[in-house]
Specification:
It is a single chain. With 146 residues, the protein is mainly alpha-helical. It is built from 5 helices and no strands. It is 75% helix and 0% strand. The protein is elongated and about 60 Å long.
């Protein structure tokens, strides 16, 4: 739970920033003009950048602790006492580079994943809105979930 809320917060903030960048790069100053699905997908890919900057350290720590759990399960000894201890030791041994190690791999996963996620999200929003004869901006939370 410690990573889910900031992860989605950064993803949706990044998606909004991505849409702004797409509008700027395609000279679409009017926010009421809907973006194409390709443009939405590009914005989704852009959303992975700030999301990864924030989430990569916790991903690295999570992976190290998962590997450690397997080692302990097989009779080995624990190297880290928990998330904070792991972060401190990573920083002490390799600085910020050690904490962000694996970020490229995370981006290789998150960019296409966010393209698919936000492309699908927007497609479903538009489809539901069209079925209800409404604009997708007018949909309520309940209409999107149901």
């Amino acid at each position: 739970m410690t990573g889910v809320i900031p992860n989605f917060a950064m993803a949706f903030w990044g998606f909004d920033a991505g849409k702004s960048l797409v509008r700027f790069s395609h000279d679409i100053p009017d926010a009421s003009v809907p973006l194409s699905m390709t443009q939405i997908s590009i914005a989704g890919g852009i959303s992975a950048l700030p999301q990864t900057v924030v989430m990569a350290p916790s991903e690295r720590i999570k992976c190290l602790l998962q590997v450690q759990a397997n080692v302990v399960e097989r009779g080995g000894t624990a190297e880290y006492a928990g998330m904070v201890d792991c972060a401190r030791r990573l920083y002490a041994t390799g600085g910020i580079r050690s904490i962000y190690r694996g970020t490229c791999a995370t981006l290789l996963r998150d960019v296409p994943g966010n393209i698919a996620y936000f492309g699908t999200y927007e497609y479903v929003r538009r489809t539901v809105a069209a079925a209800q004869g409404r604009d997708s901006a007018e949909l309520s939370f309940g209409a999107i979930i149901v």
